[in-house]
Amino acid sequence: MAVSAPAYSLRRAYVVWGAATAAYIAAVVHRTSLGVAGLEAAARFDVPATTLSMFIVVQLLVYAGAQIPVGMALDKLGARRLIAVGALLMGLGQFGMAFAESVPVALAARVLIGAGDATTFVSVLKIIAAWFPPRRAPLLGQITGQIAQLGQIISAVPFVVLLHGTSWPVAFSVLGIVGFAAFTWVLTWVRDAPAQPPTTAAGVRLRPIDFVPASPDVRPVRGAFRTAGSWLGFWTHMVTAFSFNVFIFLWGYPFLLRGQELSQTQASTLFTVMTLVAMVSGPLIGEYCARHPLRRSWLVFAVTGALVVAWLSVLIPTTPRPLWHLVLFVVTLAVGGPASLIGLDYARTSNPVERLGVGSGLANMGGFVGGFLCIFAVGVALDLVAPAGDYTLADFRVAFSVLAVPFIAATIGVIVMRRATRREYAQRGITVPRVREAWDVYRTRKH
């Protein structure tokens, strides 16, 4: 159904963005709900760790695999339709989970949830690009991602209370209703673009990095895949987000309960802390990227180093860590979530608007490809070292060692593609100054 483009106003832009972001909050609830119900799912379906991990692996595999088709559909059909269809699919998937009594039915439900989830975030980013000036895009993208993490709090607290206070069918049916509600409000409030582009508004300043010339290659998939900035986004998203995804989607909760011997309340509190930290750090990261678009990789390397140190600090010791140590650990992991959105900002500043959906989809695959591979690998390792399912810290130390592989591979990918992206920037007349040159310019402006 065609919907006429409304006149542009900043107030209307925020209404559209708010409605789309609310749909993304619901998507995060759907995405993370099984992660806090992992032990209950293992008992309900009577499955070992490898099979349990397949529920999340299938969901993330579908999510990652759908990014390119979703990007193509987004560029042709618009964000409003895709967000609405995604909400409907996730609602159907949660009803499927509510009444599934066998593994195949549950896996089919996770396919629906993964497919619906795949449509949402990149579509919201397209909404931001259409309704707001480019200078605001990094900050609003971060705010969107971090506000949506309220969905993780909803999963970790109210949903867990509902699950334990009622039953599996009731709790997951409520999530299905949430999906249908999101479908309704998206069709009511979200519009693809205003009649007047925001870049034509008075007072809007555009920088060279915001001008991405139209590509002579009319095939968006080939064009996005041949753009180094898309791949820099992919590897950036992977190196900062994959271990965060492993933790929040499935293995973080069991690790805290069994490996670190925390109570359920303590574990839920740490998940809530992660969400709050991400919500605070996200806008700071977004503002940094908006102010220093040519120095985004500095932040990527800093966050990657902090993540590696954080994981080593809990996996090298042979005894459970004190609570303050685990707080620092989850705080560091939490920063990886918003830092991964730098990858989508690379895609935004490297792809013309006609293939922005595909470029963003490619970048958005990174953390989820690394995530589902590691989730499955951790499950296999746990089944090998603890086939009875009675996991200990020693078992998790062995299983989580697989995280080293994507950390190394993705870091190399960032280094290689950063060089290639800077060559692309040079062809557009954008030169990344050396640090000393940039510092001299900064000092000149200050004085």
UniProtKB/TrEMBL annotation:
The keyword DNA-binding does not apply. Keywords: Cell membrane, Membrane, Transmembrane, Transmembrane helix. It is found in: Cell membrane. Pfam families: MFS_1. The chain crosses the membrane at residues 12-29, 49-70, 82-100, 112-132, 144-164, 170-190, 232-253, 265-286, 298-317, 323-344, 365-386, 398-417. GO terms for cellular component: plasma membrane. GO terms for molecular function: transmembrane transporter activity. InterPro entries: MFS (IPR011701), MFS_dom (IPR020846), MFS_Efflux_Transporters (IPR050189), MFS_trans_sf (IPR036259). Its main location: membrane. It is a multi-pass membrane protein. This is Major facilitator superfamily MFS_1. It comes from Jonesia denitrificans (strain ATCC 14870 / DSM 20603 / BCRC 15368 / CIP 55.134 / JCM 11481 / NBRC 15587 / NCTC 10816 / Prevot 55134) (Listeria denitrificans). The lineage of its organism: Bacteria, Bacillati, Actinomycetota, Actinomycetes, Micrococcales.
